[in-house]
Task: structure prediction
Amino acid sequence: MSAPASTRKPKGLIRSLVGIRGYLSVVVVAVHLAPFAIALAPVTAPFFLPIWHHAYVALDLFFVLSGFVVTAGYRKVFARWPGWGVFGKFLWARLSRFYPVHLAVLAALVGAVLGARLVGREIPHGGDLGIDLLRQITLTSGWGGADSLTWNGPVWSLSAEWFCYLLLPLLQPVVLLLRSRWACLAGYLVACAIPLVSYTIIGFDDGTITYGMPLPRALGFFLAGACLQQLVHVDRRVPELVGRVTGPLAVLGFGLIVLTSNVGLSTMYALPVVGLVVLALGEERGWLDRMLSTRFSMVFGEISVAIFLTHVPWLLGASLVINPRTFPGAWGWLGIGLLLLGVAVCGWLAFVLVEKPGQRIMRALVKRPAKAPTASVEEKTETAVEEPSRSGR
Result:
């Protein structure tokens, strides 16, 4: 018999929620690799075209996951206004997770673009050295109103998530008002409806959901994840029930993604079901949880941010030398392999040389606030393998 929601001991590290990040990053890489792969080996088109046009749903699941783990770690801190000091240190901790790599990649990209121009070449980046670059530096490129993705395109999603962090003191108290099973489930559906209704009206085209008006997408699914985490605290029956069918639920979600894409609908419509996978994994049971909790999956999940931030600049730069002209015919397969190898190498180097040192430096500059959790689920989930030798895992 499970403990009542009010007395149930909070969980620590949920390994599968770390592991799933790595696999979601693979999907995102595949989306951006698709046009290059199809050009190098046209025979891959039946595989890559559906991914290219429909697998963006992986980013939406990232938003659900983020809302879930951030709420788990900071629900008590932001139950009421904690003060500017605590809020600032929370934002600094979140920023330390990705900003060092972001700045390093952006600096390398600017340098590469300027260097290429000196030799008469052009690396496509779609931005200028003025407002577009400033929006990247200030993490506002994903707040809408842009004409295109510029510089490091995927940063729009981190920028949109950053917007959710800025609103957390307002969002969290509202989520905590959901005190029953049905209130949390209703909140989850309403949150999912924010992007679905918005884009049903204004359109699901790539421009709208990535740079034209992406905030309903990020805010809605972030709130959906927060509602799922609140459900864990107010009710045990639904999470335990969902946790028993994690694998079948994931298969069902994938089936809905395929179905919606085949009938001409946005795969975003599958998110109300797919998002429940996050809730199910939080129960830590079943074959999918075990697969996502392996050492390989954990390390893979840990470097997912670095992979996410480096893969598009790598693909754009590498395409200047790895293309159908230099890798014709069957050699195109080798070109695809080299592109994938470069994604892995760039991600790992960015993680080892920039992300971890940068994170340690940034967090050392600000002491942990007294009221903040000292070992929150959110922090453990996002930095799970910081000290593998000590954990013995």
About this structure: The chain has one domain: 15-385. The CA atoms of residues 125 and 169 lie 35 Å apart. The first helix runs from residue 15 to 40. The two ends are 30 Å apart (CA to CA).
